[in-house]
């Protein structure tokens, strides 16, 4: 029998955890056939090639190891002088577009006639309009994995809808967690009625924002890279206007673990409550995430609801609607702790109000009288199965042999309720039928010579009924493609001198020979 391993994330008080360049590491528990061993690993990078800090929890940190780590952390973490960077931005604002330049290789703004020789062979954009200066997300290129479309950004339409939703919820301040486009729209067009603070792991936003408007932040461990300084900026922001009218908008990497993200949200909410004791309502949150992550989000945030609104992205066809996009529109939705009836969705896109559910639903959604809810989730109209007593995807058919709804292409009898899924570790289905197949699969680690350990969201299958079906083809495609949404996280590592980047690239190939588990998606 194959040996199975499961990995859980343990949400302890992270202050005592050892740190990697991305702040305190997360504590994970590995269970191999019932035997446990815990370890610390980077919270932000799923690929150990991107951050190789690792420590078994029962391993002693020798003074030597500590010294090496301190040096390495110091070497990797860029030194940022935010005030100085921002001064350059202000100076450039006064220049004409022809005089402005941005070096993508060094990730810095420059005055074009002052460009030193050293940028000669670099990738430099000249003639930067004021629009681009104030919308850096449209200027910056993904730093690493350019081939993989590393960074995904909301379409301008989705950005506007999200800001409108925040406005409907009474936002005077928007706290943007990894949502630069929302931040840019608020700052450039709505600054008279709203303010925004961007917290993002992409350090390049420093130079485009005043220190009061941007903090370099890791949302997986609630960590400010500038430490007290950043924490102070957030505290000041939360307390402004007596702490009223704050909406948090977040767009975390889809492949990341939900539990630590939810913990960060809860900690920010707690901080807000502590700083503003006169406010008796919770800070409102808009968490942008795929519909198929609903069980996980709800497991960590039980008072959240998933809205029908489909969030389009600019640079990824799978997260978009339209002729080039996914057939049933973007699979990305908004999860919120606000009352869904307070969130009207755009009429002109076919959204309408369901009086019974008291929320806005998408065009294709139908109210099922048996389930007593508008039951569609993936962009198609679900159909009710009387045998299963719930609504299912329209491509599924009820199979009398299996006594459940399945894709017609399934093989009867393969479903063995008592067997653990090789993919997610939950009982009730086989790996090939796992609802998490190909995406955040691999909670289970097959013991192989090179023991590859993939960390992902393992609570998924807990809530999801495990009489599940083989995943639909187009969903599978999304899952598979998700793994390329490595995005923002790696940018931290990329901030270093050109020399270091080159050095690292060279060393990459040999970096992974260690016998310790590799964290990757
Ligand atoms: Zn790290
Ligand atoms: Zn340069
Ligand atoms: Zn309804
Ligand atoms: Zn139904
Ligand atoms: Zn059925
Ligand atoms: Zn069957
Ligand atoms: Zn599974």
Automatic annotation (TrEMBL):
<dbReference type="Pfam" id="PF10237">
    <property type="entry name" value="N6-adenineMlase"/>
</dbReference>
<dbReference type="InterPro" id="IPR041370">
    <property type="entry name" value="Mlase_EEF1AKMT1/ZCCHC4"/>
</dbReference>
<dbReference type="GO" id="GO:0008988">
    <property type="term" value="F:rRNA (adenine-N6-)-methyltransferase activity"/>
</dbReference>
<feature type="compositionally biased region" description="Polar residues">
    <location>
        <begin position="480"/>
        <end position="492"/>
    </location>
</feature>
<feature type="compositionally biased region" description="Polar residues">
    <location>
        <begin position="510"/>
        <end position="521"/>
    </location>
</feature>
<keyword id="KW-0479">Metal-binding</keyword>
<feature type="domain" description="CCHC-type">
    <location>
        <begin position="421"/>
        <end position="436"/>
    </location>
</feature>
<dbReference type="GO" id="GO:0005737">
    <property type="term" value="C:cytoplasm"/>
</dbReference>
<dbReference type="InterPro" id="IPR039846">
    <property type="entry name" value="ZCCHC4"/>
</dbReference>
<dbReference type="Pfam" id="PF00098">
    <property type="entry name" value="zf-CCHC"/>
</dbReference>
<keyword id="KW-0949">S-adenosyl-L-methionine</keyword>
<keyword id="KW-0489">Methyltransferase</keyword>
<feature type="domain" description="CTCHY-type">
    <location>
        <begin position="349"/>
        <end position="410"/>
    </location>
</feature>
<dbReference type="Pfam" id="PF06839">
    <property type="entry name" value="Zn_ribbon_GRF"/>
</dbReference>
<dbReference type="InterPro" id="IPR017921">
    <property type="entry name" value="Znf_CTCHY"/>
</dbReference>
<keyword id="KW-0862">Zinc</keyword>
<dbReference type="InterPro" id="IPR001878">
    <property type="entry name" value="Znf_CCHC"/>
</dbReference>
<keyword id="KW-0863">Zinc-finger</keyword>
<feature type="region of interest" description="Disordered">
    <location>
        <begin position="480"/>
        <end position="521"/>
    </location>
</feature>
<dbReference type="InterPro" id="IPR002052">
    <property type="entry name" value="DNA_methylase_N6_adenine_CS"/>
</dbReference>
<feature type="compositionally biased region" description="Basic residues">
    <location>
        <begin position="495"/>
        <end position="508"/>
    </location>
</feature>
<dbReference type="InterPro" id="IPR036875">
    <property type="entry name" value="Znf_CCHC_sf"/>
</dbReference>
<comment type="similarity">
    <text>Belongs to the ZCCHC4 family.</text>
</comment>
<keyword id="KW-0808">Transferase</keyword>
<keyword id="KW-0539">Nucleus</keyword>
<comment type="function">
    <text>rRNA N6-methyltransferase that specifically methylates the adenine in position 4220 of 28S rRNA. N6-methylation of adenine(4220) in 28S rRNA is required for translation.</text>
</comment>
<protein>
    <recommendedName>
        <fullName>rRNA N(6)-adenosine-methyltransferase ZCCHC4</fullName>
    </recommendedName>
</protein>
<keyword id="KW-0963">Cytoplasm</keyword>
<dbReference type="GO" id="GO:0005730">
    <property type="term" value="C:nucleolus"/>
</dbReference>
<dbReference type="InterPro" id="IPR010666">
    <property type="entry name" value="Znf_GRF"/>
</dbReference>
<dbReference type="GO" id="GO:0008270">
    <property type="term" value="F:zinc ion binding"/>
</dbReference>
<dbReference type="GO" id="GO:0003676">
    <property type="term" value="F:nucleic acid binding"/>
</dbReference>
